[in-house]
Structures are given as C-alpha cells and as structure tokens.
Amino acid sequence: MVIRVVSYGLGSIGREIVRLLLKRGGEKRLVGACDINEAIAGKDIGEVLGINNLGVTVSKDPSLVIQEGNADIALHCTTSSLVDVKPQILQCVQAKMNVISTCEELAYPIGFNARIAEEIDSEAKRFGVTVLGTGVNPGFVMDMLPVVLTTACKTVNRVEVTRIVNASLRRESLQRKIGTGLTVEEFQQKVEEKKLGHAGLLESLVMIADTLGWDLVINETIEPVIAEKSLKTDYFEIEPGKVAGIFQIATGSKDGAPLIKLVLRMEIDSPEQYDRTQIRGEPDIDMKIQNGLFGDDATIAITVNLIDAVMDAKPGFLTMKDLPFLPHLT
After folding, report:
1. Which residues are paired to 122 by β-bridges?
2. Please, which residues have CB within 8 angstroms of residue 60's CB and are 6 or more apart in sequence?
3. What structural domains and CATH numbers belong to the chain?
4. Residue 330 pLDDT > 50
C-alpha cells in the first residue's frame, strides 16, 4: 500500500526528513509540502533540497495542502510550543491525516499542555487517525531509552540520565536556544521569561516517573556555562565571561530523596559528549553511548522510521511509551 506523505515545516530538520524519506523510496511517497518561509514558497521541493524537481510545490498556505484525501500522514516539524502547534495538528487531524510531530512539548504533555493533548486525542479518535509526538530529546534518549532499559530490572530505585552535547557541531537555532554569546544577566532574564533553555526535560522526567508509577515532586534548574576563553562558531563569537552554553537539571524527588535526575549540558567546544543512563536497582544498569546520539540525525531517523507504526496504531494521541517500538527501516 502506498503511504502518501505531507511535509509540514521545512526548516533544517524538516528538509532532512524529506531527504531521508526520498532516499528510502518504496511505498512512502511525498505528495505535498508547506512552510511559511516566503523564500521557498512556490518552489519545487526538489529545488529547495538542491536535487532534481519532484513535481511537489512548497505552499505557504497549509490549507492548500492539508485537505481531506490529499495524504495519509503529515510529518510535522515547526516549533516547540504545543500551544502554537495545536491549530496545525488539529488541521491535519480534521483532514483525516495521521501526524508525527517533532514538537517537544507534544512528546509527553504535562501541566496545561495535558489538556491540549486531551483535545487532540479526542479529535484524533473522532476522525480515526493517530497523532504521535516524538524526537530524540524528548522522545528517546533521556526518556524512552531509560524506560526500555528498566524492562530488564526486577526493581528500580533510582534513574539518572546525563546528556553532554558539543553545541559547536549543532545548527544556529540550537546555539541561540542555549544562550550562546549572551551576558549572564541577559541569560538569566531570558530564562525568567521562558525564552531560553531546552524544551522537554520536564516532559522526559514525567514520562519516566509515570512509567514507574512514581508520584514525585519535580524541580528544574537552568544555569549558564561561562566561556573561559574566546570561542567561535559558524554563527557566534563568544568573549570570555559570556555564555557558552547551558546546564539544565530536572529532578523528581520523594520524601526529599531524588529518585530521577536528568542532567543536560550543552556548550560550545565541549571537551566531550556522551549519553549515559544509570539505573540503580536489581540489577544495576550503567549504559554509556560514547560521543552521544547526534540530535538532528536521530530526530530525522525516528520520524521517518515510525511512519508504519503510526499508520498501524489505534486512533488517538500517543506518546513513545504507548507505541509498540517496531520501527520500519524501509
């Protein structure tokens, strides 16, 4: 069966998702694409990707692409805020399209976002489609992977996940998101305004806690990493004393004892990078991915690999822990 795919959002990640989809070929076919970027609107998606024309024109107006009968699934890649993407997701759902979205706050909605997720779930069931929020972080390396590892434990007493990222290797938007080049005062102001920091760390923590049946007191801290010498990337020049990255920690505690701790450090010119999951229980597990999962590539792969699983899933809103983890690489 041919699966007709629409690309919703053609930023750097969205474009590479399309590129991988085209590389895979087979029964998954790109039939539509939309993005608000006027520089690419009206162009053939092949031209945008720097390859031969494919006969699919990028539309600036999603309503021209997201129409009932146009496609089976939308690969949605726009922004981190669930409030902002809600209308986009519902537009796809009401056109009877399944959705895989890289929106971080959709990976495991908490707080006010949980009510939005309930609305999406209700509409998805009404229209008979499935919506999945996913990505590498949140969606895999700091939540789903630890959850899977606990399957091998008789008991679990504590979970700690550490992700160290060399942000010099990442795109401009991520470097900006971690406050690169700001003064400490500017960094702290943006944190207070919730305009800076990694979206999804608390969502990852709650996913783990819910899976383990733990009711925890949650806390999050966000601190700057300060440059000790002059640093330079393709996008920023950082003076000594300015911000070179972010150190973000989420903890879930019970009776004052931390049971889950998620540590994320992303900085320019980090001397190391890795992903490490430590589980204290029976048995203990200590797994380290040397050099870490490269976030962009992993998100791209996860999005494309789970198309078949989402198409086969029951209608409604799902998180990664709800979905049988059976990715299709074809």
Report:
1. none
2. 34, 35, 36, 37, 38, 41, 42
3. 3-135+297-322 (3.40.50.720), 144-292 (no CATH)
4. no
